[in-house]
Amino acid sequence: MTKEELKALEIAKSVDARGTACPGPLLAAKKAIGEIEEGEIMEVLSADEGTKRDIPKWAEKKGYDYLGDIEENGYFKMYLRKN
Amino acid sequence: MVIGLFSGGYDKLTFAGVLLSGAAADDMEVEVYVHLKAAQWFVKGNEEGKLYLSEDNERLDTCMQKLKEAGSPSWIEYFMMAREMTSVKIYVCSLAGRIWGGTNNENFIEMVDGIIGIGEYIDAVKSADVHFLV
Question: Which residue of A has its CA nearest to B74?
């Protein structure tokens, strides 16, 4: 997805994990994904470089769609759809 | 996944907690076998014991401070979080328990699931898909 498409997504749940390093954001994402329905989209905010690699791999393993990420000032916004 | 937890150092306990967290995110079932020095922290009443690093102990304060700044929970908080998310069983080696004053289940903190002999740990390692010795 393009940056514009990602920005236009309807977000069902946003997880702000910018205050924690790996594995905090992954755990936060794992907890939060249970709170959304299939087909809905979750956004994960993280400033941790390792997490930027972990979240797409985790999404793939769990069968979620990793839609992409946007780099902001000092952090990333990552988007995934629950299937 | 099986973790053989031998070290009592705060750094390695934290690493074990991080491993558990990764396993929890993947819904992996984990068995932790607690041996010798690590067992001290699982005996009731020892929770407030003196922390140390497995190496370079003079850097303990710096390490603790940096972990705090990174938003890292304590090692035991990692363990508790992982147990809330996936199946984590924690077993203490009977010899190790005895060294630190734990001879029956009541002597250990609540998260301990049982006391085992070395044979059970070896069997678990034999059948595990992944094994870490920390």
Answer: A24
- How large is the average pLDDT for residues B112-118? 95
B65 chain-A contacts, CB cut-off 8 A:
none
Return d(Cα A74, Cα A26) in angstroms, integer.
Answer: 18
Q: Where are the beta strands (DSSP E) in chain B?
A: 2-5, 30-34, 88-93, 114-116, 131-133
The answer to whether B36 faces chain A, any CB pair under 8 Å, is: no
Q: Do B25 and A26 touch (CB under 8 A)?
A: yes
The beta strand positions in A1-83, using DSSP E, are 13-16, 41-46, 65-71, 76-81
The pLDDT, as a whole number, for residue B50 is 86
- Strand A41-46 with A76-81, pairing: antiparallel
> Which ipTM was obtained for this model?
0.79
- The predicted model scores a pTM of 0.89
Chain B residues whose CB is inside 8 A of the A20 CB are 70-72
Edge-to-edge strand ranges of the sheet holding B2-5: B114-116, B88-93, B30-34, B2-5, B131-133
3-class SS of residue B127: helix
Is the Cβ pair B25, A24 closer than 8 Å?
Answer: no
Residue A15: list chain B partners with CB under 8 A.
none
pLDDT digits (tens, 9 = 90+) for A59-69: 999 999 999 99
